[in-house]
Amino acid sequence: MSKNYITGFPRIGEQRELKKVLEKFWAKETDFSEVEYIAAQLKARHWNYQKEAGIDFISSNDFSLYDNMLDTAIMLGAIPARFKGLENEELYFSMARGNKDAVAMEMTKWFNTNYHYIVPELGQTDSYALNSTKITEEYREAKALGITTKVNLIGPITFLGLSKRTDRGDTYELFSKILPLYEQLIKEIGSLDDHVTVQIDEPIFVKDIEPKVLSLIKPCYDTICNAADNVNIIVSTYFEHATEATKVLVHTPVWGIGLDFLYGGKNFESLEAIAKSGKKLIAGIVDGRNIWKNDIEATVALLEKIAQSIEKENIIVSTSSSLLHTPFTLKYEEKMDEEVRNWLSYAVEKLDELNLINKLFSGEKLSNTEKNALDANRSANESRRSSKRIHDKAVQERLSTFSRFEREGTYEERIAIQHDVLQYKPLATTTIGSFPQTAEVRKARRNFKNGTIDEKAYTKTMQEYIDECVAFQEECGIEILVHGEPERNDMVEYFGEQLKGYGFSQNGWVQSYGSRCVKPPFIYGDISRPKAMTVEWISYAQSRTKKIMKGMLTGPVTILNWSFVRDDLPRSEVSKQIALAIHDEVNDLQNAAIKIIQVDEAAFKEGYPLRSQNIPEYENWAVRDFRVAVSSARKETQIHTHMCYSEFNDIIRTIEAMDADVISIETARSGNELLKIFAEVGYKQEVGPGVYDIHSPRIPSVEEIVEQIKKLLKVLPKEQLWINPDCGLKTRKWEEVKPSLENMVKAVQIVREEL
Ligand code: GLN
Ligand code: ZN
Questions:
Q1: Which residues does the UniProt record annotate as the domain Cobalamin-independent methionine synthase MetE C-terminal/archaeal (predicted)?
Q2: Could you identify the atom of ligand 1 that is nearest to the CA of residue 730?
């Protein structure tokens, strides 16, 4: 009989208990023992969920008070010098969040997910020492509850690969310092019990792997596996295929290899080699990153296909990755439409799916409850295949006959006409869209949603905000205005709520970083736009000024990348459907006399595939769909786009191919560094590099902005430059925004006079 396996479980708590207690602790409203108490309760609850669902391999050390990479840094004694002298929780949370004397460690995205980890900082001369307390304590904690866990660790190669060197050197040079600590750790784990299983996560193996890194795998896992006789080592990978690393791992003493068969189809090529090695295959087949009900019979068929190469008893049935990237449980989704809810599975529901799949695959007899569950699964999937709410003939027909992929006119033709019509000066000033979201605005949105105020009252509050926002921009002397986005809680959700084919959860929280959670909307069906989404607000704003009001939309790729996306259609198709809806919105805006329209693609870079081989295809449809979205714009309608902090070097040609007339980018922290590539490649469209950082409450001085603009002018000519802040201003306060923008406008005046 085969066994089942959970790579990892979410930890924030189904009612976000961990978030709440952490924030209370940080606000000094409770002490650390309360945090520990809640953490212990959550761990116990999560272990029990898995035990009750009949899961064989349940993890310890998948829990964390903030982040597992941070835990690993602590475990290895990789403490940056600025935190020396601190201890325990004070040290831990200072590293994560900074304190009055020391800035926090950097945070970045975990592969292509929306989870962010703390980036460890390593120095060549630092010394490291093992601290295995968290790991051994959690193992014992579970054991005391009658649960024997596998121990989850982040592997040394991934740890080094994701860390940074304070002296900019190569982190892998520290391999020989770190490996002995892992060896010692495995010995300590071995002493915890007669027999222990350890899951070592090496997701870095799914990226393009350099020969240098590949050559570390064998010495690494020979050493680790030989550290203790009673420890079984599993190397776990996810999010893509790991064929290169697998070829090496089969020649090491690892006990098992975890591969993702949902996001790494190429892993099928590794089956023969694994079969020959006699190792266990942890087969990732229940989606750890999405919310759809598994198609159980299709999954069992997939496993049977694997079983043509590998003996069933060597196959362990698993989630494709940790369930960290899915919400907890459908239990609290009381308001969701029954039909839609029936298509979903969150982490807790996935446990039962896994158990059922495993039983069917092993040929075990099902209980009556299980038989019913299987029937229910079959009919839920049948309903997804046929429901009219998902399959919209009109959308499909329009998509198949749609042929307008390009705007009229070349960039050169368009920009000449636009300058004629719009008459803006070099170094034209604008902002990225949102203005401070005041308590009043948030309250009005909330009250309108729950019915406490009517549409009239709501509209009035929003219009008053827009009035003030417009008045401020006029007084301040900004040239191209925005309405301020008071009606939007989020740049994706706002559009999702108005598009058909989108669903929303009440409690579908997923950890983003630390105590921060996001609740992504989900695309379940064909997307269409029942009516205009932004025209009324933007037209109202335009009616309040003689200046040009810029219309504000979110682009198809960003909408896609910040949602859970249906898995019954390629992402590129879903993206095209969204693009059509935006295309119509652009058209409606220009017909309402809006002359400049910004289509934000803040998450364009985030959607990049992990393997370079897949990049051209992504770029192809991502660019196509941006162009589709703006293809309704007439020559004289100026299209802007906006992207947040990115390295543009690798993607500059792609950005250029999007062919927006103007792109604004977040660059202030880099000075003019990020802009240089635009000049190097002879980028021709106009660019608005951010002149100040909006993530900090600091007010930039006129002089400082003048300096920044001068730096920019060293790279690109004034005719090609716009002046704006880095990003939207919604997280800032008016007291910060007003003087900052006033200084920005003054700085532009000074520079213009000098030119
Ligand atoms: N238009 C959006 C805003 O200003 C853009 C957000 C962003 O920069 N990511 O809020
Ligand atoms: Zn931005």
A1: 427-748
A2: 10
489 contact partners, CB below 8 Å, separation of at least 6: 442, 445
367-386 pLDDT, tens digit each: 999 999 999 999 999 999 99
CA distance 392 to 217: 49
Question: Is 333 marked as a binding-site residue?
Answer: no
* Catalytic residue (choose from 195, 251, 419, 695): 695
ipTM: 0.98
Helix (H) or strand (E) holding 281: strand 280-286
- Apex 328 CA angle, 324 and 333, nearest 5: 145
Identify each DSSP E strand in 475-565 by its residue range.
Answer: 480-481, 500-503, 510-513, 516-518, 522-528, 548-554, 564-565
Chain centre distance of CA 64: 19
Helix (H) or strand (E) holding 150: strand 150-154
392 closest CA partner among 577, 572, 556, 555 = 577
Residues, the chain: 755
Give the model confidence (pLDDT) of 282-303 as tens digits: 999 999 999 999 999 999 999 9
Helix, strand, or coil (residue 318): strand
CA of 743 relative to ligand 1 center, distance in Å = 21
Residue to mutate, 430, 432, 559, 662, ligand 1, most ligand atoms under 8 Å from C-beta: 432
pTM of the model: 0.94
What is the token pair recorded at 755?
Answer: 């030119």
Q: Could you tell which of 441, 724, 727 is best to mutate to test the pocket of ligand 1, judged by most ligand atoms within 8 Å of the CB? A: 727
